[in-house]
Structure to design on (816 residues):
């Protein structure tokens, strides 16, 4: 049995935060029903896509879900969707959406159908206005301190970190609310603004108090690790790697592994520094980089790796996505995180499951994304207990649709 | 009552993933005990720090926790720590650590003291080797596709996204395991590797299948939004903003708000494109940017904002951390996410709580970080039921320590 076996979640959402949250719960064993319009949701064609136009992004973020296609522009379709969202069962009645919680998705309206409904509503800003990862990230400071010192141009992140963090925050909130419902019988509405997730983290990491207490703000430090020691280096064979010495242990390992102990002692004495203090390492970062550079330049990545690993130095290679896939054993079947799975209409690819290993419950095997509408009939039959003839009529009236593997 | 009221978690961890996870649960009402060595953990002096040397980072990531100082190098100290970790109570027995789960922190050993212990162990790599956010990020592809197209140098992210995501994944796992224990009476060990969190997300977002199925990999696209339309623009008054048109609705709003509808139609006809298709917008991104640039260059940020907001365009200003703190109403007391709170030894600063709003349970007021060792006596008294004289002896023998506001 998987750890969330039995739990049933319905989702009307698109893009990253909601789909990633519910997929993460599906990877722990929850049953997730994603309801989409017949033509697919807003994210159904999101890039990257295959040569045939199938979205690898959609396939990757909806693994293991049941896909139900309903024409939610028509009242009968909305009625069906509401019935699925609020269907009975002690483990059901959990609903995720990033659409506005109004009209047919109004919480109070849904609550009339199921008094203990738990609804998670992800919004852009707390006032309900729109925001995406890209329009939040620009506002919270990071693009102006990313990249080469001296540059003025903002550098956006490529990883949609705020969306992902919002999703995992929502997943945590859902389980907290499910726990409360189990103990007290009460459902509720959880509301999470993407920009609040970012703002809370900016505060948690000290960026707000840095401005308010210290009267200063973080500057661009390129690839230096702020407040400690860490930087990238070039090897003899044209590779790059990142070295980190955040703790004293890591610092000593680095000095020993690269044989710069004596040069470092001379540097410390000359500058009155003590590099076991992270602040002193940070202050002398350019001088330390200069001491280390020749060592890396004289060695290939493989040679450096062997010597660094022998001293348990904390380091990592820079890898392109191709190098990651082709060369890193962590990104292969050697890592139990992955299985090689055939995705219908897409092909065979290395597919991750949940990154959590559980010692006491079964792990969910790596999952495949659905074909749009693949589970429409199954869900109407099993969750809503409709008869085959009722389902047939809904098909005839085009209120629902089945598997649409041909539709791109 | 807050949603996780009653739950008690013990933590032996440092830096971001663990402390952020448990703090996020404290912000939902859980009671969190952080055990540290008497001199403070590895992260106790982590930058940014105040002029007096107090870590704003530590204060920000340990809000609301009880701080217990124990000399865990001595057997008696370890015995005390183990007793706290495995103390009885149906809501207790939840333990977070990012130290190696061996020796006195071996799961099987701890389990002998409490059979239903839930232990969350965050590690660097699945094989137990060290990794930090910086040494994982370099390996999973993003730094080589971040920044200006044509550049070859890797650009590290500044937000420790993998640490934060690992933390929230761990928090979700903990609540899943607590649910399972409530239903079935069984505890267990959860193991989460930082690099697996990153690898799973790289797979989920389609980067692995892009290489394996499409035989290509993501390139550097600067501040363009991949596969849709979005870019940064300069305004007349020297500000920058980010505009996003991921959905058709956002695209139409942008064209209308900036009055480029006719020019866009001409561009579509000339190139045989249909910009309601995100792929066509992406292909024509440079031409679209060129059409929009003059509009932004002719307006101040405020003028542009008014016109964009009137059409509900999805956009955001680039802001430095100072601008965020001084100018953005979302980062002020106008947003209920924040309260202005005095942090002992640090000062008054805008302090976030949980980004989740709950309609049916009380929200936890914004929390203050502890002084190191502030709760040592309280926890030994209340959790371990030690007497004052027993606690006094432990102090005399320097196995424990109390509040150390003076120690920096």
């Amino acid at each position: 049995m998987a750890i969330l076996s039995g739990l049933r979640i319905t989702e009307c959402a698109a893009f990253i935060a909601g789909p990633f949250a519910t997929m993460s719960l599906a990877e722990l064993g929850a049953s997730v029903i994603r309801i989409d319009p017949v033509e697919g949701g807003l994210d159904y064609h999101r890039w990257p896509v295959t040569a045939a136009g199938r979205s690898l992004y959609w396939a990757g973020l909806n693994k293991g879900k049941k896909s139900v296609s309903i024409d939610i522009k028509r009242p009968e379709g909305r009625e069906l969707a509401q019935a699925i969202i609020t269907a009975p069962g002690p483990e059901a009645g959990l609903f995720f959406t990033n659409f506005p919680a109004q009209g047919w998705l109004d919480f109070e309206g849904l609550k009339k159908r199921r008094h203990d409904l738990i609804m998670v509503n992800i919004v852009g800003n707390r006032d309900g206005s729109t925001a995406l990862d890209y329009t939040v990230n620009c506002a919270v400071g990071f693009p102006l301190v990313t990249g080469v010192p001296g540059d003025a141009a903002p550098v956006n992140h490529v990883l949609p970190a705020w969306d992902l963090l919002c999703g995992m925050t929502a997943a945590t909130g859902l389980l907290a609310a499910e726990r409360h419902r189990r103990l007290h019988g009460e459902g509720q509405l959880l509301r999470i603004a993407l920009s609040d997730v970012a703002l809370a983290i900016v505060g948690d990491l000290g960026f707000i108090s840095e401005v308010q207490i210290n009267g200063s703000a973080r500057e661009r430090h390129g690839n230096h690790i702020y407040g400690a020691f860490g930087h990238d280096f070039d090897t003899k064979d044209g590779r790059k790697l990142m070295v980190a010495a955040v703790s004293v242990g890591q610092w000593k390992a680095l000095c020993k592994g690269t044989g710069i102990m004596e040069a470092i002692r001379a540097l410390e004495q000359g500058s009155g520094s003590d590099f076991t203090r992270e602040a002193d390492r940070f202050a002398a970062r350019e001088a330390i980089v200069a001491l280390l550079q020749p060592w890396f330049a004289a060695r290939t990545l493989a040679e450096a790796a062997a010597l660094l690993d022998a001293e348990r130095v904390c380091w990592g290679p820079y890898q392109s996505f191709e190098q990651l896939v082709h060369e890193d054993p962590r990104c292969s079947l050697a890592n139990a995180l992955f299985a090689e799975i055939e995705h219908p209409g897409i092909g065979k690819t290395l597919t991750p499951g949940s990154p959590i290993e559980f010692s006491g419950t079964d792990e969910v095997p790596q999952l495949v994304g659905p074909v749009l509408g693949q589970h429409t009939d199954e869900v109407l039959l099993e969750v809503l207990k409709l008869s085959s003839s009722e389902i047939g009529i809904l098909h005839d009236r085009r209120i629902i649709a089945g598997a649409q593997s041909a539709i791109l």
Observations:
- The mean pLDDT of chain A is 97.
- The first helix of chain A runs from residue 17 to 26.
- The longest strand of chain A covers residues 31-36.
